[in-house]
């Protein structure tokens, strides 16, 4: 017998059970694309964007360990959905990401550029693509519309993801001590996400007012001495969710509570008025009034305030003049900041209002009043 056996020992635990509900959902999404092909008179659609791959496969990943470069594409026709891949990644894709979902395979050796196969399957066809690709028409904006709203299984997965992202942020905030560096805290946060199968796509640990100078600061080697804002965006099965919490080590300065409460008021106003059927401009007008009321009318110009999220971390930014309409089934991440204070939560828009998916657990709360509603929001955690 050869020292290098060609047989791989496979345990039953390594063989994923077939998910028939997921397979049905993939078939329904394929039907949506088939209808689109017929309407637009295309022969096929080439999907390479990881967000679209995750949408069509209901959670599959066509990158290596959540990277940014796709190793596989899908050619969608009226009759089939075909994975275009190399010989190294095809096995893992079909066994771990696509088992039993009805995909076919066209495979080439890893030594060949993936563009060779993708060009070959497009030749002689009228093909649309979700990214720029030679001899195809870019329909990224059209495909995005399919991703914009989530179905019930996606929403349930988003709920679980959001709960675990918020829990990881809060557990991290409760369990570090003065003198820890931003990078050390980010490491602990990353660990808590990864052990739940959540890919950290963005981490922020902003010590002692760091966010006032740099609103998009990630983390560095500065020690945390007085207070800290901790944020995370996590991705699992294609979906994204984000949460932010603030912790003070010892008695905080009055300004910390004041700016935090103002940021929460802005955020809660935005969440409350993210109503199905409203344009982003209509919602923005309500948010802008809060900034004006508290004599900081230009504070919002210093950073972005919110975005629709989902299969991409940022599907569409909420901007002052956008005519994009909110829809039931969308996820929105509201994350305004005021000076060094920053807040952030992911909500689900419903026909009858909104649901906070990243609701806190074991965290101090404060009531924020918007119109006639009292809404419970996360306060500053004080650790003695």
Characterise the protein shown here.
- This protein has 384 residues and is α+β, with helices and mostly antiparallel strands.
- It has two domains: 12-147, Creatine Amidinohydrolase, Chain A, domain 1, CATH 3.40.350; 152-383, Creatinase/methionine aminopeptidase superfamily (Creatine Amidinohydrolase).
- Helix content is 33%, strand content 24%.
- The chain is built from ten helices and 19 strands.
- It has helices at residues 20-40, 50-56, 90-97, 114-122, 140-147, 152-174, 182-194, 210-213, 254-272, 280-293, and strands at residues 44-47, 72-76, 81-86, 104-108, 127-129, 137-138, 199-207, 227-236, 239-249, 306-309, 316-317, 331-334, 337-338, 341-342, 345-350, 353-356, 365-370, 373-378, 381-383.
- The chain has a six-stranded mixed beta sheet. Strands 11-10-12-15-16 form a five-stranded antiparallel beta sheet.
- Helix 6 runs antiparallel to helix 7 (182-194).
- The relative contact order is 0.11.
